[in-house]
Every structure is written in structure tokens, then in C-alpha cells.
Design a protein that fits this description.
The complex is a heterodimer of chains A (418) and B (242).
Chain A: E1 7-9, E2 24-27, E3 43-46, E4 53-57, E5 62-66, H1 71-78, E6 83-84, H2 96-101, H3 109-112, E7 119-126, E8 129-133, H4 138-143, E9 152-159, E10 161-162, E11 167-175, H5 178-187, E12 193-198, E13 210-217, E14 231-232, H6 244-256, E15 262-268, H7 269-273, E16 279-280, E17 291-298, H8 300-317, E18 324-329, E19 344-352, H9 355-370, E20 374-375, H10 385-391, H11 395-398, H12 409-414
Parallel strand pairs in A: 1-3, 2-3, 14-16
Antiparallel strand pairs in A: 4-5, 5-9, 6-10, 7-8, 7-9, 11-13, 11-15, 12-13, 12-18, 17-19, 17-20, 18-19
Chain B: E1 3-7, H1 12-23, E2 27-32, H2 35-47, E3 51-56, H3 65-76, E4 81-84, H4 92-97, H5 99-123, E5 129-133, H6 146-167, E6 172-178, H7 198-211, E7 215-218, H8 221-230, H9 234-237
Parallel strand pairs in B: 1-2, 1-4, 2-3, 4-5, 5-6, 6-7
The chains are: A alpha+beta (418), B alpha/beta (242).
Chain lengths: 418, 242
């Protein structure tokens, strides 16, 4: 056990960094799935106390706020005033600092890129001084997606996008094969958002079947059902509720819940973007041992081979998640040196943690590596240093920008440093 | 009822309360020691829908109370709700070892509150509310933090008496008794079921103010817990550690 303070809560964005000989790391709201937000034997700088708005121009949609503000807090402020986050991940509980450090993406990568594409500037506190960084600065590209290693982001200025209200016009299309997914992706580029749910238990001729969801912000005057009170997993069951039996049943039911090939609806933005936020402590359904997430991206040239290979491996194992997510990223340059989102196809699944899951993930990694792909550090707890290096070719350009006072458990693991 | 004076406005509970008032479009006058932090909080509250002005003052400086109140009254044209929220959480052992520290902490948590309450009582007019944050710690002195507890006991007794005194004048005095509150300081640690967030406390404060309640234990289950603790007989109480 370390003898020093394992965490220090920040309340004031002008507060200096603590002087320590052990590494620092910012910790926002703990929504990364792996060890990129952990710092064993170091000190975590807790940023949730930095949750103030600093300036908001409702005419231009430029918002400056502290780094511990959550995306949900921004939406609660901005949606009634006609603005929306141009990029949002699948949880609104992430902080602005976390969204920058992981350069998070959403269902509209093809249209808007990643979170870092909408950051106008940010203030960085490093052990060697204070920096205001803007998109053309080298330190900006290092900090966007930089996993918190380039210093403490204290606040950021974001460009929001205008919307007419909180409603989404959603269309759900059933597809029977992976070819169907790729065809729907190709013809849906005019939609702001697109993503697919895949039945990860289906095999053989049914492999890769699922629902393709595409959506746009609904025009003024649209209305639907308001989100209800959140559900909750009140206890952690001793064993995972996600198992071979429940998985097959859930996936088959979910696939067949929609009988018609296409269904249109109007949804509130909260259930549309953040279905899991509606179930408090949803992670408890995986039991005490928890779960591992695997999110990879494979380049366009190899996606048509790699995605079926990954799905075959998963369905053969009998492991997998209720919600496997498949999406095509747009053909855009990333704003960060270590940005994950890049041209190609991304697949994300959860697996109940077990020895068999670790073995399966190693087999999946082999397919990803062979395909020239990468894993998402924000969701990783176990990728090999080799796969990390292969997936992030700008690594050597990034390393000089690291603040020597900062590190993370993830970084020490993938760089094989103590 | 939207002219709100908050004394001790940089505390987590006060800031959470101010945000809820801001969402109602309130006019806020914020008092605290650190001018820069007050200004950062005020800027945030303005974006959330409030009008906000700040006044920096070390509340141990009793001579500064009256000019501060005059500034608040002139800025808001009167006060509908005055919330006294400042305080410290002194280290019990350090207080036990130092008379000087004990007296200073008693002044910070007790004396300065009584001074402000006295001055506010002269200014507030019906149907205003004076809301004062005391603590469950004031219900019975315990070995771990009796200096803090005795200051809060003084605040609880003072507000109880003032409530009677001002009742006929139509001014409500609300005694707020929060239990354990999860501030960012303790964020990373696992909390028992007894811990509440500053925002939960803030919601309870505003509800109690709106209902013109007399005493608010926050969350409400602390009323039952303290009822039990208050009634443990001394022969037993002196032997246990709390």
C-alpha cells in the first residue's frame, strides 16, 4: 500500500498541482472501463469538483467550462437553449476532461469526427507551467486522446451545434447478414447518426444479423415520450446474469422484437444516446467478477474479412454481451496523435470476466492485429504492449509531450515501464 | 421569494443550493472569504439562470457583518431567504490540544453564526426565511468532535429561540441538520448508506424553506438516528465510542 494520499480532490481550477515524487493522473467520473483512469501507487486528481460553467454565448454556441463538468450537465443546460454536443459517447456521465483525454466518438463520427474536433481551446496545467492550447499547437494534438498524460486539463472551450429541441427522429432497419450492414452503412451517410446492434450469439447463415439504427435531430414540433425515472440494479448478484443461456435468449428475442424490416419513431435524446444511463449500476448484472470490454477498429481494406472472423470467434465461444455494437467510422483525419476513431469499422462488446474471456480476447486481438487494427485504450484492461504500439503509429511523436509528473496504470502496462 | 443571500457561498452545500435557486431564476448575493472562488461560482450561476453578485468577507470579522448586510440589502432591495452556510470541520484532537484553536473554531462555527443571526433578525421582514446550517453533531456531544458539536449545539439552541421570537413577526427560522455529506474530498472512497451528496442536501434545504419548516434533518432518516442517540442513557453513552 502506498503511504501517500491516493487522491486529492480539486475544487478550484487555479489550485496548483501537488508537489509529489509519485505520478499524478486526473480522474473525472470513472467511466473508462479499464486502467487508463487508474494510477496504482500514484495520486489521482479528482476533477468532479471542477464543475463550473465559465462562459456560454447562446448566440454562437461557444461554451467554456471546467473539466469536471459532465456531458449530461452540459446537455441539461444547453438543450433548452437550442444547443447540443456535436459529439457524444454512449454515456452522459463522462466528464469534459475525460472526453478530451480519450477523444471520445459517437454515432456521428462520419459526420462530425470525434470530441477533439470541437474543442476550440483548453487550459493545461503541467509540472512545468500553464498552457493555453488551441488546435494548431502540437500540445493540443497530444492532449486530445492523450489519456491524461500531458497534464491536467482544467477547463475547455467547446463549439456546440444548434438543434431544434430534445427529440430524435429514429429509424430502425433489420438486416440479416453483415453484407446487409455494410450496404445500409453505405446508403445512410446523409443521416447524422448511425450505428448497428449485432446478435453476437447468431452463427452460420445468421452470422452478423442485427438492427441498423439511423437518426437525425427532429425538427421543431416533434414530440414523443419523455424519459421515465431511471431503473437500478440494487444489488450485485454473486454470479453474472449474462451467461450462455441468457445471452442466446436475449439476443434472439431482441432481434425478433422488430417484425417489420423498418420502424420509425421519435425518441427523446436521453434514451436514444444513453440507454444504459437509464439503468443505474447496470454493470452489477455481470456479478462480482465484473466484465471486460473489447472495442476494436479495423481498417476499411480488411473490415470485410476481419469483422466476420471476430463474430465467428465470439459466437463459437458462447460468450458475449447483450448489446454488441458495430459502426463504420468516417474517412476523416483524427485530431489527436493517439485518437482511437479512424477510418474503418468498429466493434464493441462486453464479456463477463473469466479465464475463458481473457483467452477469447487474446484470440480476438490476434485477428485485430492481423487486420492492422487497434483497440480502444479507454475500454481496455489487458491488451498487449505490441498491439498498442501497432495500433497507434504516432506513439513516438506523442511521447515527448508527456508531462513527466503524470502517468497511469494503463501507460505503465502498455509501455512496460515501472 | 427570489432574493437570496447566501453566507458561506463557496461551501459545497451552499453552491449546490445556489445552483437550484439559479435554475429558478433567483437573484443571489454571495458572501465568502475567497473572492476569486466566489467570482468563479457567480459566473457559473449566471450561466445557469441567476443574477449573482459577490461580497468577499472573512466571517470571523464581525465588524464586517453589518456593511456586508447593508450591501446585500442595497443590491437586492431586501432579502427573502438568508442562508447561513459557512463553517469548518475542525480536527477533534487538535482542538483538544489547543485552547486557542478551540476558541477560534467555536467562533467560526458558533459565534459568527450567532452574530449574523442577530443582525439578520433585525433586518428580515415577513415573509422572509432565515435558514441556518447546523448539524446532527449538535444534538449530542461525542468524543470524536465535541468542539464542533458544541458550536453546532449553540447554533441549534440559538435558532430554536430565534424561531419563537420571530414567529409573530412572520419570519421563519429554519434549523438545518445535515448528516454525513459526501464532498469531493471523499469522492473516491466507498460510502455507506448514510452518506448524502451536497445536491441531495440542497434539495432538502429548498424544500424545507418552501414549506416554512422549523427543523430539517437531511436526509430525513437522521431524525430517527439522532432520536436514538439522544436517548442513550449516560451510564452507557460515556462508555461507547461515537
Amino acid at each position: 500500500m502506498p503511504r501517500h494520499a491516493q487522491s486529492q480532490a480539486l475544487h478550484d481550477r487555479r489550485q496548483p498541482l501537488p508537489a509529489t515524487s509519485w505520478p499524478l493522473l486526473a480522474w473525472g467520473n470513472g467511466r473508462s472501463y479499464g486502467d487508463s483512469c487508474q494510477n496504482t501507487d500514484g495520486t489521482l486528481l479528482l476533477t468532479r469538483g471542477l464543475d463550473r460553467f465559465i462562459a456560454f454565448d447562446t448566440a454562437t454556441g461557444v461554451l467554456r467550462c471546467e473539466a469536471g463538468v459532465t456531458l449530461g450537465e452540459i446537455l441539461a443546460l444547453c438543450v433548452p437553449r437550442g444547443w447540443f454536443l456535436p459529439v457524444t459517447p454512449g454515456t452522459q456521465f463522462a466528464t469534459v476532461g475525460g472526453a478530451i483525454a480519450n477523444d471520445v466518438h459517437g454515432k456521428n463520427h462520419h459526420a462530425r469526427g470525434s470530441f477533439g474536433d470541437h474543442v476550440r481551446s483548453m487550459h493545461l496545467r503541467r509540472s512545468d507551467g500553464e498552457y493555453d492550447v488551441a488546435p494548431r499547437d502540437p500540445l493540443f494534438a497530444a492532449t486530445v486522446g492523450g489519456l491524461g498524460l500531458t497534464g491536467l486539463v482544467t477547463d475547455a472551450t467547446l463549439q456546440l451545434m444548434p438543434v431544434d429541441g430534445p427529440w430524435m427522429a429514429v429509424e430502425s432497419l433489420r438486416f440479416d447478414t453483415l453484407d446487409g450492414f455494410f450496404a445500409l452503412s453505405a446508403e445512410s451517410s446523409a443521416f447524422e447518426y448511425s450505428v448497428a446492434w449485432i446478435d453476437c450469439a447468431a452463427r452460420g447463415r445468421q452470422l452478423g444479423r442485427g438492427h441498423f439504427l439511423r437518426a437525425s435531430h427532429a425538427p421543431r414540433g416533434a414530440a414523443g415520450r419523455l424519459p421515465g425515472r431511471p431503473l437500478a440494479m440494487p444489488v450485485t448478484p454473486p454470479v453474472s446474469l449474462v451467461n450462455r443461456l441468457s445471452l442466446r435468449a436475449f439476443n434472439a428475442l431482441y432481434y425478433h422484437r422488430q417484425r417489420r424490416p423498418s420502424v420509425r419513431s421519435t425518441q427523446h435524446y436521453q434514451p436514444y444516446f444513453y440507454p444504459l444511463d437509464g439503468i443505474r449500476d447496470w454493470n452489477r448484472m455481470y456479478g462480482r467478477r465484473g466484465f471486460l470490454q473489447h472495442q476494436c477498429v479495423v481498417p476499411p481494406t480488411s473490415a470485410r474479412d476481419a469483422i466476420p472472423a471476430l463474430l465467428t470467434e465470439i459466437s463459437r465461444s458462447g460468450q458475449g454481451s447483450f448489446l454488441a455494437v458495430l459502426k463504420e467510422f468516417g474517412d476523416r483525419a483524427a485530431p489527436g496523435l493517439l485518437s482511437f476513431a479512424r477510418p474503418g469499422t468498429t466493434l464493441a462488446l462486453d464479456f463477463p470476466r473469466s479465464a475463458a474471456a481473457f483467452a477469447l480476447l487474446d484470440r480476438l486481438d490476434a485477428i485485430v492485429g492481423e487486420a492492422g487494427g487497434a483497440l480502444y485504450p479507454a475500454k481496455d484492461a489487458r491488451m498487449s504492449p505490441q498491439l498498442f504500439r501497432a495500433g497507434f503509429p504516432a506513439l513516438d511523436a506523442f511521447v515527448p509531450h508527456i508531462d513527466p509528473a503524470f502517468s497511469s496504470s494503463f501507460w505503465r502496462r502498455v509501455m512496460e515501464t515501472p | 421569494m427570489n432574493r437570496i443571500l447566501i453566507i458561506g457561498a463557496t461551501s459545497a452545500i451552499a453552491e449546490a443550493t445556489a445552483r437550484r435557486y439559479a435554475a429558478r431564476g433567483a437573484r443571489l448575493f454571495l458572501v465568502g472569504r475567497d473572492a476569486a472562488r466566489l467570482e468563479a461560482i457567480a459566473a457559473d450561476l449566471r450561466i445557469r439562470g441567476a443574477e449573482a453578485q459577490v461580497h468577499a468577507l472573512d466571517l470571523l470579522d464581525t465588524a464586517g457583518h453589518e456593511p456586508m448586510l447593508a450591501a446585500a440589502w442595497s443590491a437586492l432591495g431586501g432579502v427573502d431567504v438568508a442562508l447561513i452556510a459557512h463553517g469548518t470541520l475542525p480536527d477533534g484532537d487538535a482542538c483538544a490540544a489547543s485552547v486557542e484553536l478551540s476558541m477560534r473554531e467555536f467562533a467560526a462555527n458558533g459565534g459568527s453564526v450567532i452574530a449574523l443571526g442577530t443582525a439578520l433578525a433585525q433586518r428580515l421582514q415577513a415573509p422572509a426565511t432565515l435558514a441556518v446550517i447546523s448539524s446532527v453533531a449538535g444534538d449530542r456531544g461525542r468524543a470524536s468532535n465535541y468542539l464542533y458539536g458544541s458550536a453546532k449545539a449553540a447554533v441549534t439552541a440559538f435558532t430554536s429561540g430565534l424561531r419563537q421570537k420571530l414567529h409573530r413577526a412572520g419570519v421563519n427560522v429554519l434549523t438545518i441538520k445535515p448528516g454525513f455529506v459526501d464532498t469531493p474530498m471523499t469522492k473516491a472512497f466507498k460510502k455507506g448508506a448514510l452518506w448524502a451528496t451536497p445536491d441531495q442536501i440542497a434539495a432538502g434545504i429548498i424544500k424545507a424553506v418552501d414549506r416554512r419548516a422549523a427543523v430539517a434533518y437531511l436526509p430525513g432518516f437522521w431524525r430517527a438516528i439522532m432520536l436514538v442517540i439522544k436517548h442513550i442513557p449516560e451510564p452507557i453513552f460515556r462508555r461507547i465510542t461515537l
